Amino acid sequence: MTARGTFPHRLLPYLLLAPQLAITLVFFYWPAAQALYQSLLREDPFGLKSRFVGLANFRRVLSEPSYLNSLEVTVIFSVATAVSAMAIALLLATMADQIVKGRGLYRTLMIWPYAVAPAIAGMLWLFLFNPTMGTFAYMLRSTGYNWDPLLNGNQAMVLIIAAAAWKQISYNFLFFVAGLQSIPRTLIEAAAIDGAGETKRFWTIVFPLLAPITFFLLVINTTYAFFDTFGIIHAVTGGGPGKATETLVYKVYNDGFVNLQLGSSAAQSVILMIIVIALTAVQFRYVEKRVHYG
């Protein structure tokens, strides 16, 4: 029979939950409700007059070629960022786990980039790959490659994917290292005695045991690519050139804060929220089935 904790007063549990509930209501549910309400209105740029238009904002947004372009850019950017950040982090975590001397130092150095703010990370990559004065841009041009992400949309996309993945690698690395440490060494040693090579041991023993962490990071990295990369895109490309790197979250900002199309911007934010919720639900519904716990 398991012991259950009891509170001396009935209101105490609710008082302990009150700060978190207040933060959730004020910073999530209230803005979401405001965006949903504003998406049904058409307002002038100064917010002095508004008119109820129903779903007209949604119909107009979904029929715009620029919005469909942003959707395509977001899919490419999110998939490339999540896959590359997780794959590189797993590779680095596996290599760091095999180091005996100085293991703690390597892990600490790998975690540091996560402390860099997204805008700072974007400016760092912009300076390094700036076609005029960037160190790596000079190295690329010296090899005969015409590097100019300010004019070439494909190069700009590669640049922001690299910057966003670099920013997230440290976070993924931390979880993968923790997962590798929790795997019993006896399983690895038994497989090695049976003649399994290092690659086979990884794919048949290590990687399946990392499935819960991999699934968790897949959800986190997807959300990160959709929302938290705004600062990187704003600092590096500003959505250009020619809207080649304008993701959905950046288009929300561009239409709402730059062009002052408040109703359209609110409708886009609601659509983006629905997409992320649906994508997360699909991941939990279908991907989690392949995850084995314990």
UniProtKB/TrEMBL annotation:
Q: Name the InterPro entries for this protein.
A: MetI-like (IPR000515), MetI-like_sf (IPR035906), UgpAE/MalFG_permease (IPR050809)
Which parts of the chain span the membrane according to its record? 12-32, 73-93, 105-128, 156-180, 201-220, 266-287
Keyword line: Cell inner membrane, Cell membrane, Membrane, Transmembrane, Transmembrane helix, Transport
Segments forming domain ABC transmembrane type-1: 71-283
Main location per the UniProt record: membrane
Places the protein is found: Cell inner membrane; Cell membrane
- This protein's source sits in the domain of life called Bacteria
| Membrane topology category | Multi-pass membrane protein
Q: Which Pfam families match?
A: BPD_transp_1
Where is the signal peptide, in residue numbers?
A: none
Quaternary data: The complex is composed of two ATP-binding proteins (UgpC), two transmembrane proteins (UgpA and UgpE) and a solute-binding protein (UgpB).
List the PANTHER family hit by this protein, alphabetically.
BLL4140 PROTEIN, SN-GLYCEROL-3-PHOSPHATE TRANSPORT SYSTEM PERMEASE PROTEIN UGPA
Function of this protein?
Part of the ABC transporter complex UgpBAEC involved in sn-glycerol-3-phosphate (G3P) import. Probably responsible for the translocation of the substrate across the membrane.
Give the protein family: Belongs to the binding-protein-dependent transport system permease family.
* Protein name, UniProt field: sn-glycerol-3-phosphate transport system permease protein UgpA
Q: What organism is recorded for this protein? A: Aquibium pacificus
